[in-house]
Specification:
alpha/beta, Rossmann fold, Dihydrodipicolinate Reductase, domain 2, 2 domains, six-stranded parallel beta sheet, five-stranded mixed beta sheet
């Protein structure tokens, strides 16, 4: 049985995912796409072996069994609600938006739908999920990003923090994952995914550094639990969008491959 996949948003992640589906992922086919300005993407869409339907966001839930959200966080609700209310699967990348729309989880449960959050830019979510079956005492994440990947973040604008000309690393935020997601919505989906896997957005602590000495997005996570103490570090190569790591798109592809794989590795 082949599952139809629709993609909402054709930025660096959505376009890469579309091409991967067109090249072939077992048990899946690219059925439809949606983008704010579809004309920007027609050149490469026309080169696909099988042309997907081009639809408005609200029509994706009827056109596919799985809808992948690769759009601005403000659109998450309009993408996910129709999908899960029909008992289908929504793959969500703008995880931070779930904190303001947590009723979507109840909506999915009520209708037999599912919200899937890929590992994305963060290694070790399986370990955190396993530790959460027991008791996690603390989770702390420290993120260092190149300056250009943080420019324009609402938290910086609101607090009048100018990082454009800094010459050395500067800590620009310390607080909870919930606060980080609100202040840095395009940057800290990784912190929200970590918090949802573990002890929640109000107990997961986050530090953010603007660092002109790095060229990659660097995340370090430290977890204390009754079953294990562990730390993880990853340096992600930015995609065409400096706010997003290249590995994020690959993580979604890996997630989709698992859906029909004869052997599935990881929790």
């Amino acid at each position: 049985m082949v599952s139809r996949v629709a993609i909402a948003g054709l930025g660096p992640i959505g376009s890469r995912l579309s091409k991967a589906l067109d090249q072939g992922i077992e048990g899946l086919e690219l059925a439809a796409v949606s983008a704010q300005n579809i004309d920007k993407h027609r050149a490469w869409l026309d080169k696909l072996n099988r042309k997907p339907a081009i639809l408005p966001i609200e029509a994706l839930a009827d056109a596919a069994d799985i809808v992948v959200e690769c759009a601005p966080s403000k659109l998450v609700r309009s993408i996910v609600a129709p999908v899960v209310s029909r008992g289908k699967t929504a793959v969500v990348l703008s995880v931070g938006a779930l904190l303001d729309n947590d009723d979507l989880i109840a909506l999915a449960k009520e209708n037999g739908g599912q919200i899937v959050v890929p590992t994305g830019a963060l290694i070790g979510l399986d370990a955190v999920t396993a530790a959460a079956v027991g008791t996690i005492h603390s989770v702390r994440m420290t993120t260092r990003k190149p300056v250009r990947g943080l420019l324009g973040a609402p938290y910086l604008v609101e607090h009048g923090i100018d990082i454009e000309g800094i010459k050395e690393p500067l800590k620009i935020f310390e607080g909870t994952a919930r606060e980080a997601a609100k202040g840095f919505p395009a940057n800290l989906n990784v912190a929200v995914a970590l918090s949802l896997a573990g002890i929640g957005p109000d107990r997961t602590m986050v530090e953010i550094w603007a660092d002109p000495t790095v060229t990659r997005n660097v995340h370090r996570i430290e977890v204390e639990s009754d079953s294990a103490r562990f730390s993880m570090a990853i340096e992600n190569v930015p995609s065409e969008n400096p706010k997003t790591g290249l590995i994020t798109a690959l993580s979604v592809i890996a997630c989709l491959r698992k859906l029909h794989a004869p052997l599935r590795i990881g929790t």
